[in-house]
Write a structure and sequence with these properties.
The structure holds 2 protein chains of 2 kinds.
Chain A lengths: L57 H13 L21 H7 L2 H4 L11 H18 L3 E3 L5 H18 L6 E5 L5 H8 L3 E5 L9 H7 L4 E7 L11 H10 L3 E5 L19 E3 L20 E3 L11 E5 L2 E5 L20 H37 L4 E2 L10 E4 L10 H10 L6 E2 L9 E3 L7 H20 L3 H5 L12 H6 L8
Helix pairs in contact in A: 2-9, 4-9, 5-6, 9-11
Chain B lengths: L2 E4 L4 E6 L2 E6 L1 H7 L2 E5 L6 E2 L4 E7 L3 E5 L4 E6 L1 H5 L2 H5 L8 E5 L11 H11 L2
The chains are: A alpha/beta, B alpha+beta.
């Protein structure tokens, strides 16, 4: 519904045009001196027309981006229960640490002798992550979760090739994050899918039937994207190892088990850790992320360069595939990884301490189970027998015959002031609603969320409300967008 | 005589005088929602029964279409690649995916007929 105002603005919420639709080309935020006449040497390739940059004065430009930022919704504005995303609070202490001049002002090309503190910080964070997982080695440079997956699979490929046993297949369960099969494909492997059993876990018999000497690795998320701990993970690890394959774990859901389960005890060979999820740095547009990878003894030698090592004159970086790095699969990122993200995570870890991290994972699981228990009054939990881990999964059986879909339900949540949960994923249940509250939400927030969802569910079930749901969201700057048309005929470039 | 068979992955295959036509079922199209992208196999490609033949992306999900039978691709429906919505409009008619010559027509006897498929769908209904 467009507001009945002369301007189209909604009180102080401004209907903001694109920046290209504002100002005029001859206007500028700065006064530049007239360029001298020069003879160019572009051989006729010089630009013939105006470049088309918008012309705005500085205050107009500042207002434009400030207004856009006010339309944004993030963890700093409200509850953000996206499943498998761990949208926890980003403590401001992390920001303070990252802005210390000794961290914020260093350059990656400085001599190692002048950045010993920075190298010590990378090394200390690495030791914490190895301690928390019980793993003997770590690669700090991967820049995000999927980059970490690639790092793990490249180490696995290097290990297989080193023993003259290049393999072709990577096994991925049906409920995996989409990045898992994408990573395996990018790494040159053929992906074979493993079905889930009726308890939402990997079907062990189906897995064993597909394990042979062509399989390079299994990529498993634990806890998985149904929010469940893979209860047969030890048998899975043993079967993978017996087939001569490696066991990769997607660590996106590590927040559920920090301080409680050592990854090494599960027989895992490689796991990335999303610092931007579990260790509280901004993400989802506020990034960048970082995805260090812990490695088992079997994969340690193949870790990428660079890595920090204690040398005769303090800490030094091993930058080449020589000596200690002889079997390294090489370099996968310029310089040493997302240093600023590492500092934020280190600040989080040191401020929480070991006991605090244990408490955080406990509270994250408690909060998810609180949602599971209370919402089960009206919604249909997909795996009701037993507790969940960090996230609660529901399907759309409670909407059967109401005419309301999962999408409609999620859009109605926006009008109520909640960012929707993850929808239609994982694919192993119908019309999935996957929610992860994290430990940083209060009981008051969770109660308000629960009451809202229960009331929406009752409204849908009472009947006759389908049109109402289809019309949501009503109070956003834009109403429901035409996702189908956007996907079928995307307009990717603004033209006048 | 045309033989129409279905897989439990929700593909259909109709077979008539050595040429078979393959598509996804009405149920599959409905479950996927609005289809926005389709990747079809190349003409001449040989497909194994159960092997990946095509990819379908909808606003909800991306999924694979598996070949209901072994053989080689003789024609593809370019119209659905250009206008994927045709599959939603007519999944078991104009929205067909590809035609193939079968290398083992006997494989079709392992698939479901219409009655068996409809009974199968009832077991999925929740």
């Amino acid at each position: 519904m467009s507001p009945n105002t002369f301007t189209g603005n909604r009180a102080l919420v401004i209907e903001e045009p694109l920046i290209f639709e504002q100002g005029e080309p001859q206007r500028s935020g700065v006064d530049l001196p007239q360029a001298p006449e020069i003879a160019d040497r572009l051989g006729g390739l010089e630009r013939q027309g105006a470049i088309g940059l918008p012309g705005l004065a500085e205050p107009e430009c500042v207002r434009h981006y400030t207004r856009l930022s006010q339309k944004n919704f993030g963890i700093d504005t409200g509850f953000y229960p996206l499943g498998s995303c761990t949208m926890k609070h980003n403590p401001r202490l992390n920001e303070k640490a990252a802005r210390l001049p000794g961290f914020a002002g260093v350059h990656p090309l400085q001599p190692a002798s002048t950045v010993q503190g920075a190298l010590e910080a990378i090394s200390l964070l690495g030791r914490w992550l190895m301690d928390l997982t019980g793993m003997p080695a770590i690669a700090m440079s991967p820049a995000a979760g999927a980059h970490g997956e690639l790092c793990g699979l490249m180490a696995i490929r290097a290990a297989h090739e080193d023993r003259g046993d290049a393999r072709q297949i990577v096994l991925v369960p049906e409920s995996a994050h989409g990045t898992n099969p994408a990573t395996a494909t990018l790494c040159g492997y053929q992906v074979v899918s493993i079905p889930a059993n009726e308890k939402g876990r990997v079907d062990l018999a189906a897995l064993k039937a597909k394990l042979d000497n062509k399989v390079a690795a299994l990529m498993l998320t634990n806890p998985n994207t149904c929010g469940l701990f893979e209860s047969e993970i030890l048998e899975i690890a043993a079967a993978v190892k017996a087939a001569g394959a490696y066991f990769y774990c997607d660590g996106a859901n590590f927040n559920a088990i920090v301080g409680r389960v050592k990854v090494a005890d599960l027989g895992i060979d490689a796991m990335h850790i999303n610092l931007h999820k579990t260790f509280s740095t901004p993400h989802g547009g506020g990034g960048p992320g970082a995805g260090p990878v812990v490695l088992s003894e079997r994969l340690k030698a193949y870790a990428p360069v660079p890595f920090v090592r204690a040398g005769e004159n303090g800490l030094e970086l091993v930058e080449h595939c020589l000596g200690d790095g002889e079997k390294s699969f090489g370099r996968m990122k310029g310089f040493h990884g997302q240093f600023g993200v590492m500092i934020r995570s280190l600040a989080y870890i040191l401020s929480m301490g070991g006991n605090g991290l244990w408490q955080a994972s406990s509270d994250a699981v408690l909060n998810a189970n609180y949602l599971l228990a209370r919402l089960s009054a009206e919604l249909t939990p997909s795996f009701p027998e037993g507790p969940c881990m960090h996230e609660a999964l529901f399907d759309d059986r409670f909407l059967k015959d109401t005419g309301v879909t999962t999408l409609d339900f999620a859009k109605a949540m926006i009008d109520e002031g909640f960012h929707p949960m993850t929808m239609y994923f994982p694919l192993v249940v119908h019309g999935a609603l996957l929610m992860e509250p994290t430990e940083t939400e209060s009981k008051q927030t969770l109660d308000q969320y629960v009451e809202t969802l229960l009331s929406l569910a009752r409204k849908a079930k009472a009947g006759g409300a389908a049109d109402d749901f289809k019309a949501a969201p009503r109070m956003t700057p834009r109403r429901r967008l035409d996702e189908t048309r956007a996907a079928r005929s995307p307009v990717l470039r603004w033209k006048p | 005589m045309t033989v129409l068979r279905f897989t439990n992955e929700h593909e259909w295959i109709s077979f008539d005088n050595g040429t078979a036509t393959v598509g996804i079922t009405d149920y599959a199209a409905h479950q996927l929602g609005d289809i926005v992208f389709i990747e079809l196999p190349e003409i001449g490609k040989s497909l194994a029964k159960g092997g990946q033949a095509a990819v379908v992306e909808s606003v909800k999900a991306a999924s694979e279409v598996y070949s209901p039978a072994s053989g080689s691709v003789t024609a593809i429906n370019q119209a659905i690649a250009d206008q994927p919505g045709q599959v939603n409009d007519s999944p078991e008619g104009d929205g067909w995916f590809y035609k193939m010559s079968l290398s083992a027509p006997g494989e079709l006897s392992g698939l479901m007929d219409k009655d068996a498929y409809e009974a199968y769908l009832k077991t999925l209904d929740h």
